[in-house]
C-alpha cells in the first residue's frame, strides 16, 4: 500500500519537508519507507509506503511514482512504475494509459519539458486529489495532506456538506470532480492531468460506448464470463501480498473467493462480519462455502459497537464523513485482517452494478421491456419480482412498478434515468436553507446508453453507489496497511458485461442470471441459486435507539451543533425521537437510521476540522 504526494512551488515544498518524516498530514499508521524525489528546485513528487520496496522508478528524464498496481500482460515486465515509464517513453502518456489494466493512481514527471502528469484508473479504485493556488500545484492520495498547503486550507464545500446532511447517500458523489473541501479538486476516474508552464490540462482516456448487445448464446457468454472473471481475479491474486477475502452470503464475494481458489489451487482465508441480529447476519448463508472454498473462516462480531468512538476513528482515516453504516463493520473487519498478518483484502464490490444485483435495477429493466413493446414479458417479470421480493415495508406489485418507472425514467429520452425525488428529498426539511438551498440541487444524470438498465448501472458506477464505497474501502484498508482489491471493477469485465442483454441479467424476478450460469460447478449450488438478497449491511437502527440515543441527543443539543447552521436542530431531534419509537415498537415502518448515521458522521468530521 502506497500513498502519493507531490508539490510544485517552493513554499509548498518547504511545507512538505517540515512535515516529513512523521506524516503530519493525517496518516494513522507509521510507514516503513517514505521519501521524496526532487525534480528541480521547488518541485518534488514522492510516496509513502508500508512496504520495503515502493513502486517508484526513474529512467532517463522520466520519474514515476504509483499508488496501486498494473496488471495483465504488462505485469511481469518489472514493477508497475517501470511499466508506466517504459510505455510513456514509447507511446506518450494518454496512449500508455490505454495499455494498462489495474487499480492505480500515477504521477509522472518528464524533465525534458518539466511536465507533471497524473492519472487515475478507469473506475477510480485509487483516489487522487489536487489543489491549485497562485503559488503552487500539489496533489495527494488523500485530501487532508493538501489542506496544509499554502492557500488551500480546510474550508468546507457547502454543496457537499448539504447533500451529505439532507439527501440520500447516492447523491453525495454526483460531482466526481469535487471533494468535501472547497479548495481541493478530485481527479475523476479515467482522467489525466498535465501540469506544465503553470497551466493545467485535463482529459479523459476511457469510457464505455453504446455498442450492440452480444448475440452469442447464453451458455457461450457464461463460459466467456467465467474465463474472464477467473483471469481477472487470478491477475490480482498473483500481484497481492498475503491475500485475505471478505465473505458474505451473496454471490459476489463468494465468486471472488471461488475464482481465487481455482487460481491458487487451494481454499482461501476469509473474514466475515457477523451479528446476533439475524436480519443482518449471513452466517447460515456463508456455511456452504466453507466445505471446499475456505480454509479458515474468521468471524468478526459487530454487535454492540462504541459507535461514536469508531466514527471518530473512521473520519480520521477517511478525511471526510463516511456514507453508510456498512463501513463501520468494514473498518472493524480491516483491523482484524491486519492484526492477523495479511497484506491485502479482496472483496465483491462492483458485482451488484456489473450484474444488475440491486433492487433498483428491476425498474430500469422493466422500463426497457415496456419501451421495446415486450408487454407480456413485462407482466411476467413484474409478477415474478413481486413473488420473490415482496416486503412488508417496501412493497412489490404492479402498481409500485409502474409508479416507480414513471418517477425514475424519462420515456421521451431512451435510457435516461431520473433521480428518485422522494428518496432524494426525504430529509430536505431538516436542513437550514440559509446554509444551502437543496431545492436548487439538480443531480447530473448521464445518458450514455439507450438502455435504461445500462444507463442506471453506469450512473451508479460513475456518480452514485460506487465512488463512496471505493473511497471508504481504499481509506480503511490503507489505514491498516492493507491493499484493497476489487476484481469486479476491472475494465475488461465492464466492457464485456455492458454488452450483455438485460434478459441475461434479470429474468423471472431473479438477478445476476449470467453470473449464476457462469459459476455453475464453481460455487456451491445453495449459494449459486439463492434468490434472497441480504446485502452486506449493519444493524445501525439499534445503534441510535439504544445506548447510543443519549450521545446522539447530546450532539444535537450541543451549542456547537446548533450554531453550525447546517441543520434545523428541533427537526433533527424530532427525527431521532421518532426513530427510537419506531425501533421500540417493532412496527414495519421505515426508520431514520441512514439520516442519523450521516448526521453523526458529518458533525464528527466538521468537529475534526476545528
How is this structure best described in words?
- The protein has 610 residues and is an alpha+beta fold.
- The chain has four domains: 2-204, Glutamine Phosphoribosylpyrophosphate, subunit 1, domain 1, CATH 3.60.20; 218-354 and 464-529, HUPs (Rossmann fold, 3-Layer(aba) Sandwich); 358-453, no CATH class; 548-581 and 590-609, no CATH class.
- It is 42% helix and 17% strand.
- The chain has 25 helices and 19 strands.
- The strands form four sheets. Strands 2-3-1-9-8-10 form a six-stranded antiparallel β-sheet.
- A hairpin with a 4-residue loop joins strand 6 (101-110) and strand 7 (115-120).
- Helix 6 (218-238) crosses helix 7 (251-264), helix 10 runs parallel beside helix 17 and helix 22 (549-557) packs antiparallel against helix 24.
- The longest helix has 21 residues, at 218-238.
- The protein is globular.
- The two termini are 29 Å apart.
- The model is unreliable at 20-36 (pLDDT under 50).
What is the fold-level CATH name, i.e. the topology of the largest domain?
A: Glutamine Phosphoribosylpyrophosphate, subunit 1, domain 1
What does the average pLDDT come to? 90
- The number of distinct helices, counting runs of at least 4 residues, comes to 25
Work out the number of β strands: 19
**What is the percent of helical residues?**
40-55%
Instruction: Give the number of domains.
Output: 4
Q: Give the C-level CATH assignment of the largest domain.
A: Alpha Beta
Ranges where pLDDT stays below 50 over 5 or more residues in a row are 20-36
> Multimeric state of these chains?
single chain
The CATH architecture assignment of the largest domain turns out to be 4-Layer Sandwich
**Distance, first to last CA:** 29 Å
Question: What gyration radius follows from the Cα positions, in whole Å?
Answer: 24 Å
Task: Provide the CATH superfamily of the largest domain.
Answer: Aminohydrolase, N-terminal nucleophile (Ntn) domain
* Order of strands, widest sheet: 2-3-1-9-8-10
What about the largest sheet?
A: 6 strands, antiparallel
Amount of beta strand: 15-25%
- Overall SS class: alpha+beta
Amino acid at each position: 500500500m502506497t500513498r502519493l504526494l507531490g508539490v510544485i512551488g517552493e513554499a509548498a515544498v518547504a511545507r512538505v519537508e517540515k512535515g516529513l518524516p512523521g506524516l503530519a498530514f493525517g496518516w494513522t499508521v507509521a510507514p516503513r519507507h517514505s521519501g521524496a524525489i526532487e525534480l528541480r528546485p521547488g518541485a518534488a513528487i514522492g510516496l509513502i509506503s508500508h512496504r520495503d520496496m515502493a513502486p517508484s522508478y526513474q529512467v532517463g528524464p522520466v520519474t514515476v511514482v504509483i499508488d496501486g498496481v498494473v496488471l495483465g500482460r504488462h505485469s511481469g515486465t518489472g514493477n508497475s512504475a517501470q511499466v508506466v515509464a517504459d510505455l510513456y517513453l514509447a507511446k506518450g502518456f494518454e496512449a500508455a494509459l490505454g495499455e494498462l489494466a489495474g487499480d492505480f493512481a500515477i504521477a509522472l514527471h518528464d524533465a525534458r519539458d518539466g511536465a507533471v502528469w497524473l492519472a487515475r484508473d478507469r473506475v477510480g479504485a485509487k483516489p487522487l486529489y489536487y489543489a491549485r493556488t497562485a503559488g503552487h500545484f500539489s496533489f495527494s492520495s488523500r485530501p487532508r495532506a493538501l489542506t496544509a498547503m499554502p492557500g488551500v486550507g480546510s474550508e468546507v464545500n457547502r454543496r457537499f456538506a448539504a447533500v451529505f446532511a439532507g439527501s440520500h447517500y447516492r447523491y453525495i458523489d454526483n460531482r466526481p470532480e469535487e471533494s468535501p473541501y472547497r479548495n481541493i479538486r478530485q481527479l475523476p476516474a479515467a482522467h489525466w492531468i498535465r501540469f506544465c508552464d503553470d497551466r493545467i490540462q485535463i482529459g479523459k482516456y476511457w469510457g464505455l460506448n453504446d455498442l450492440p448487445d452480444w448475440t452469442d448464446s447464453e451458455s457461450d457468454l457464461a463460459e466467456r464470463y467465467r474465463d474472464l472473471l477467473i483471469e481477472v481475479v487470478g491477475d490480482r491474486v498473483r500481484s497481492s501480498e498475503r491475500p485475505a477475502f471478505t465473505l458474505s452470503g451473496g454471490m459476489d464475494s463468494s465468486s471472488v473467493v471461488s475464482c481465487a481458489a481455482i487460481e491458487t489451487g487451494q481454499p482461501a482465508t476469509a473474514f466475515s462480519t457477523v451479528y446476533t441480529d439475524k436480519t443482518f447476519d449471513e452466517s447460515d448463508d456463508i456455511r456452504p462455502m466453507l466445505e471446499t472454498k475456505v480454509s479458515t473462516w474468521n468471524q468478526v462480531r459487530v454487535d454492540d459497537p462504541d459507535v461514536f468512538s469508531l466514527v471518530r476513528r473512521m473520519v480520521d482515516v477517511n478525511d471526510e464523513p463516511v456514507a453508510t453504516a456498512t463501513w463501520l463493520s468494514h473498518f472493524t473487519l480491516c483491523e482484524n485482517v491486519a492484526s492477523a498478518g495479511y497484506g491485502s483484502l479482496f472483496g465483491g464490490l462492483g458485482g451488484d452494478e456489473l450484474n444488475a444485483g440491486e433492487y433498483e435495477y428491476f425498474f430500469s429493466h422493466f422500463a426497457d421491456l415496456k419501451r421495446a413493446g415486450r408487454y407480456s414479458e413485462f407482466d411476467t417479470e413484474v409478477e415474478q419480482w413481486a413473488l420473490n421480493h415482496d416486503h412488508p415495508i417496501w412493497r412489490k406489485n404492479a402498481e409500485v412498478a409502474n409508479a416507480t418507472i414513471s418517477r425514475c425514467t424519462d420515456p421521451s429520452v431512451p435510457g435516461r434515468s431520473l433521480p428518485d425525488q422522494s428518496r432524494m428529498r426525504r430529509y430536505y426539511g431538516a436542513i437550514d436553507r440559509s446554509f444551502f438551498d437543496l431545492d436548487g440541487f439538480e443531480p447530473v444524470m448521464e445518458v450514455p446508453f439507450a438502455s435504461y438498465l445500462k444507463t442506471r448501472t453506469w450512473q451508479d458506477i460513475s456518480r452514485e453507489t460506487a465512488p463512496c464505497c471505493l473511497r471508504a474501502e481504499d481509506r480503511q484498508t490503507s489505514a491498516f496497511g492493507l491493499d484493497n482489491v476489487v476484481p469486479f471493477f476491472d475494465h475488461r469485465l465492464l466492457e464485456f458485461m455492458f454488452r450483455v442483454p438485460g434478459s441475461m441479467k434479470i429474468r423471472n424476478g431473479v438477478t445476476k442470471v449470467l453470473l449464476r450460469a457462469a459459476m455453475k460447478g464453481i460455487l456451491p449450488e445453495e449459494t449459486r441459486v439463492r434468490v434472497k438478497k441480504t446485502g452486506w449491511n449493519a444493524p445501525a437502527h439499534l445503534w441510535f435507539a439504544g445506548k447510543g440515543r443519549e450521545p446522539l441527543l447530546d450532539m444535537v443539543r450541543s451549542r456547537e451543533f446548533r450554531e453550525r447552521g447546517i441543520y434545523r436542530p428541533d427537526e433533527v431531534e424530532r427525527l431521532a425521537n421518532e426513530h427510537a419509537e419506531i425501533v421500540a415498537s417493532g412496527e414495519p415502518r421505515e426508520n431514520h437510521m441512514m439520516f442519523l448515521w450521516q448526521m453523526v458522521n458529518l458533525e464528527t468530521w466538521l468537529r475534526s476540522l476545528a
